[in-house]
Amino acid sequence: MKHRPIAFIVLILCIALTTGCWDREELSDRAFDLAASADLQKDGTYLTAAQFIIPSSVVQGSNGGAGGNKPYFIETGSGKSTFESIQKTRQKLSRIITRGHRRNYYFGEDLARNGIKDMLDAFARDPGNRIRLDIWVVKGNTGLEALQVQYPLEKIPSVASLKIHRAVGGSAGTSYLDFMIASSAEGGCATLPVVDIVQGPSPQKTIRFYGRAIFNNELKLVGYLNFIEGAYRQWILDGISYLDLVEDIPETDGNVGIIITKFGRNLKSSISPINKLKMEIELTGKGLVGENNTHLDLSKEKNLQLVQHTINKKTSEHVLKMITKVQKQFGADVLGFNQTLNRQHPSDWNKLKGQWHTIFPDIEVTVKVNVNLQYIGLVRSPLQYKEREIKQ
Length: 392
Hints:
The chain is of the alpha/beta class. The protein contains 13 helices and 13 strands. It has helices spanning 4-18, 82-90, 109-114, 117-125, 143-148, 159-167, 175-184, 227-236, 301-330, 337-344, 346-352, 356-359, 383-391; strands at 30-40, 46-53, 72-79, 96-98, 104-108, 134-138, 191-199, 205-215, 221-225, 243-249, 254-271, 277-292, 364-375. Strands 1, 2, 3, 4, 5, 6, 7, 8 and 9 form a nine-stranded mixed sheet that branches. The chain has a four-stranded mixed sheet with strand order 10-11-12-13, sandwiched between helices. The longest helix is centred in the last third of the chain and has 30 residues, at 301-330. It is globular.
């Protein structure tokens, strides 16, 4: 009993000694990096840039800041390596850089074509880089230019590309992780989403989601898939949630637009006795008619079946054309064929995987698209169809 007061005093002293922070970093001592970029300059040095938030300016206002001031600023640094260029940026900042809120990173096209191995090495070693990060290639331009483009709907412009990607049916916050997984897989190659900078109706430029950038096994940019080609690829990989298509309907002098909102896919591989590979791809979906510019009354089953058959046939051709482009022009398996063969024929894959980059371009591919149109909208027949009936 007589020892209890002493124990109590010791406990109080321990609590007092273990509270508080001796090495704390206040929020007011941090610079929050919301987006960044990297470019290769003509002299072979790297130029890195970052978009930092100005906390005092993030208030309600027409221009995103008090008195019309931007709620962010951009700082740059250059050097013979990524590490050195970032160090040069730090020399201009009064606060410690914090990357926990970074959402986007932009690679200029010249850097992407030269190769991004060194950049990814710096990424992987820095624990401050979040795994849920989107890395972009800026088609025909620099990453710094992408950071500098203002976007009227967002206070912080760099958020726009991420939201646009999600709005058109893609996934957001995964391209860095997906790239690392794909580039490390045996026989596989990686892609990144692409933005380009276009002129709007006013003199001000804007940013647009373009498609996918294709990298070879040396992590060098070899080409692009445009928006619709990239969507077909995502369909094959089961990574799409929304797609709209417009196709001309023969003998109607018009076209029909459809919206697909449910997707399925099935890949089946086979190998002949002489190691000739074949890949059968079936893409399925459910959708609705968004626009009918023909004279067909789609409330009639035969007309709807005609439209559905035409769209499925033409889409099958378009998907096959995209696959042929990837095989023959890029020679990079960004379609997951390596994973399909490994999963379905593991013993054969172990024999072929070392030669995959020479085998992939010659795989025989067949594509069948089967989209079921379940809804034609509130208008049973198009207005132009009714007008024709009245005139007759």
